[in-house]
Structures are given as structure tokens and as C-alpha cells.
């Protein structure tokens, strides 16, 4: 390791939610920064910030204000100078961010797939299965695969959801493989192939934000940025933007590197899963306009009812 270019004279304050998954991702981020810059572990201090999303557990996120509930308290802590950077699951970060805040880096992406927990496959579920999920995307995808399924609201952190499943509240639930892996539970559930279920935009990616005006912090974070993850996730987020930015409707998107560009797949569904509009295109890295256009093209081909969901 060469000598560090910059050694903080006080610990850098890393802001994070307090859930076990958030803390695991915060630890991964701190370790990556210390390894990259040759710092001791005490160069970074973890500041836990409780978010509205953590506090409100009995209602679907879409109903009470969406993804901002995971970020707004951390945004405020950044803007008020209580933390130097914030670590998020990119899946929980809104498409449009305040101008003062920049996504400065992403860690290498984990497994992007969802896992079905409680059954080996959708076919193996009993008749009229009850599936727990509060994600509009997963609910619509489940109903498309199993029109006899009933999807019930299921919130709480990963451990809470697994406990509800074990208690028999539902036949099955869906969880991101990335979250389970990072929590040390790689054997829970069966991975769903990507051609059966396309994941949420940004699934499996950890992002790090700082103030747009903090050039020093941006440079330190750039040192741990995984460019491949950053480009693919940025394309997926641009699809969301093309679909109207802050919507709470069933949307899936996945970008993967292919032939020097990004193979970008996306779909929108009606809540009952009966209608699905999908598209796949190869776009150039960094071509957000092409990714946004893919999102818009889905809407153009959707029925009036489905389009109305996105215009609301
Ligand atoms: N608030 C839900 C959320 N946000 C990020 C993850 C998992 C990690 C990821 O997808 O990156 C989860 C749980 C889940 O979907 O199972």
C-alpha cells in the first residue's frame, strides 16, 4: 500500500440506517475506504440515523410517501453537516435527488436476483397461495406467475419477515438475494432466474452519497467506486426517470455489461399481473437519454389503464 494521499484529522462520519442490513453495508463501505486509502478503522465513525421508513412498519411504503422515507433524515444530516457521507441500498434511493447531494460511488454489486423463500419454485406453491410482499413490483410479478395467489402486506426487516414466514402467516415471501447474502444467510430461499423475475432497478447495489460541494469527500469516495455497477445502476435509474421518476408502480429493470455496452432490460406490469410490457436494448455506457427513452417506450406501448397508473 502506498502512503495515503489524505489522512483525516478527525474521523469521517458515515451516516446509515440502523437495520442489520444497513449496518452490514455501512461496514463494507468503511472497510473499502480504509483499505483503499490506507487508514486505520478509527478513521471512520458510524452515525446511525433512524428514518421514517424504519419507524412506520404497518403500512405499504407506496402509500405513505415512498422511498423518500428511507433517505430524508440522512439527507438532512448531510445537509446540516452532521455526517460526511451516507450509505444506502440504491434500490431505496429516489430517482430525483436534491441538487445539494451527489451519488459519489457504488460498491461492487451483489447478486441481483430475488429469492423465493418458503417454496422451491412458484410451481411448487400450493393452490391459492398466500405470498407476503409490500413491493408493487413483486406483487404484480407473483400474480402474473400465479394468478391464484393472494399477496398480503409484509414489511419489516429481513429477520422480521423470515419470522413471520416461520410463524405460518404466509406460504412464501420474496427477498433480495443481496440482502440475504450480506446478512450471512446465503442458503435461505431459492434464487429465481432472471428470465422468470426481473429485479427492481438498482437491486443489490450499495450507493454512497455526499454533498455535491464537498470535493474532498467526493474524491475519496471516487477511489472506491465500481464503475461497472455505477453505469448499470445509473441506466436502470434513468429508465425509472423515463417512466415518470417518483412512481410507486410495478417496474423492473436490469442493466448488464455486454459487448462494451449495457444490455438494458425493463418491464412494467399492471397490479394484477395480466398486462406486462417489456423491452431490451443495448445502450452505450453513460447514455442516460437512451435509457430514459426505453422507459418512455414502455409507456407508449401500454394500455390506457396501465399508462394511467404512471401518470397519477
Ligand atoms: N427496503 C427494502 C430493501 N432495500 C434493499 C434490500 C435488499 C438489498 C438490495 O436489494 O440491494 C431490501 C430488502 C429486500 O428487498 O429484500
From TrEMBL:
Protein name: Porphobilinogen deaminase
EC number of this enzyme: 2.5.1.61
Family that this chain belongs to: Belongs to the HMBS family.
Biochemical pathway: Porphyrin-containing compound metabolism; protoporphyrin-IX biosynthesis; coproporphyrinogen-III from 5-aminolevulinate: step 2/4
Miscellaneous comment in the UniProt entry for this protein: The porphobilinogen subunits are added to the dipyrromethane group.
Enzyme class, first EC level, given as a word: transferase
SUPFAM superfamilies xref list: Periplasmic binding protein-like II, Porphobilinogen deaminase (hydroxymethylbilane synthase), C-terminal domain
Subunit structure: Monomer.
Family matches, as Pfam families: Porphobil_deam, Porphobil_deamC
Start and end residues of each Porphobilinogen deaminase C-terminal domain: 231-301
Record note on cofactor: Binds 1 dipyrromethane group covalently.
Start and end residues of each Porphobilinogen deaminase N-terminal domain: 12-218
Gene Ontology MF terms: hydroxymethylbilane synthase activity
Cofactor: dipyrromethane
Keyword Transferase attributed: yes
Annotated keywords: Porphyrin biosynthesis, Transferase
HAMAP family attached to this UniProt entry: Porphobil_deam
Role noted for this protein: Tetrapolymerization of the monopyrrole PBG into the hydroxymethylbilane pre-uroporphyrinogen in several discrete steps.
Annotated source species: Sphingobium agri
Catalytic activity: 4 porphobilinogen + H2O = hydroxymethylbilane + 4 NH4(+)
Residues bearing the modification S-(dipyrrolylmethanemethyl)cysteine: 247
Amino acid at each position: 500500500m502506498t502512503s495515503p494521499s489524505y489522512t483525516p484529522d478527525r474521523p469521517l462520519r458515515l451516516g446509515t440506517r440502523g437495520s442489520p442490513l444497513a449496518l452490514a453495508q455501512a461496514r463494507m463501505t468503511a472497510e473499502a475506504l480504509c483499505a483503499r486509502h490506507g487508514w486505520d478503522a478509527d478513521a471512520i465513525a458510524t452515525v446511525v440515523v433512524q428514518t421514517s421508513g424504519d419507524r412506520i412498519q404497518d403500512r405499504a411504503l407506496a402509500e405513505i410517501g415512498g422511498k423518500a422515507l428511507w433517505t430524508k433524515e440522512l439527507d438532512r444530516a448531510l445537509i446540516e453537516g452532521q455526517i460526511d457521507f451516507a450509505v444506502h441500498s440504491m434500490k431505496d434511493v429516489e430517482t430525483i435527488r436534491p441538487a445539494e447531494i451527489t451519488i459519489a460511488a457504488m460498491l461492487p454489486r451483489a447478486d441481483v436476483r430475488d429469492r423465493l423463500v418458503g417454496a422451491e419454485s412458484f410451481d411448487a406453491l400450493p393452490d391459492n397461495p398466500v405470498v407476503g410482499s409490500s413491493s408493487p413490483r413483486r406483487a404484480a410479478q407473483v400474480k402474473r406467475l400465479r394468478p391464484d395467489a393472494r399477496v398480503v402486506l409484509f414489511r419489516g426487516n429481513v429477520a422480521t419477515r423470515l419470522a413471520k414466514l416461520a410463524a405460518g402467516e404466509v406460504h412464501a415471501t420474496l427477498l433480495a438475494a443481496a440482502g440475504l447474502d450480506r446478512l450471512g444467510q446465503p442458503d435461505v430461499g431459492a434464487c429465481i432466474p432472471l428470465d422468470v423475475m426481473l429485479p427492481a432497478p438498482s437491486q443489490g447495489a450499495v450507493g454512497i452519497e455526499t454533498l455535491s460541494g464537498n470535493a474532498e469527500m467526493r474524491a475519496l469516495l471516487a477511489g472506491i467506486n465500481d464503475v461497472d455497477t455505477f453505469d448499470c445502476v445509473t441506466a436502470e435509474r434513468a429508465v425509472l426517470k423515463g417512466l415518470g421518476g417518483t412512481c410507486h408502480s410495478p417496474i423492473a429493470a436490469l442493466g448488464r455489461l455486454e459487448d462494451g455496452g449495457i444490455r438494458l432490460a425493463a418491464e412494467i406490469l399492471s397490479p394484477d399481473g395480466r398486462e406486462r410490457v417489456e423491452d431490451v436494448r443495448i445502450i452505450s455506457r453513460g447514455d442516460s437519454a437512451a435509457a430514459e427513452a426505453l422507459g418512455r417506450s414502455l409507456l407508449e406501448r401500454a394500455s390506457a389503464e396501465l399508462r394511467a397508473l404512471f401518470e397519477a
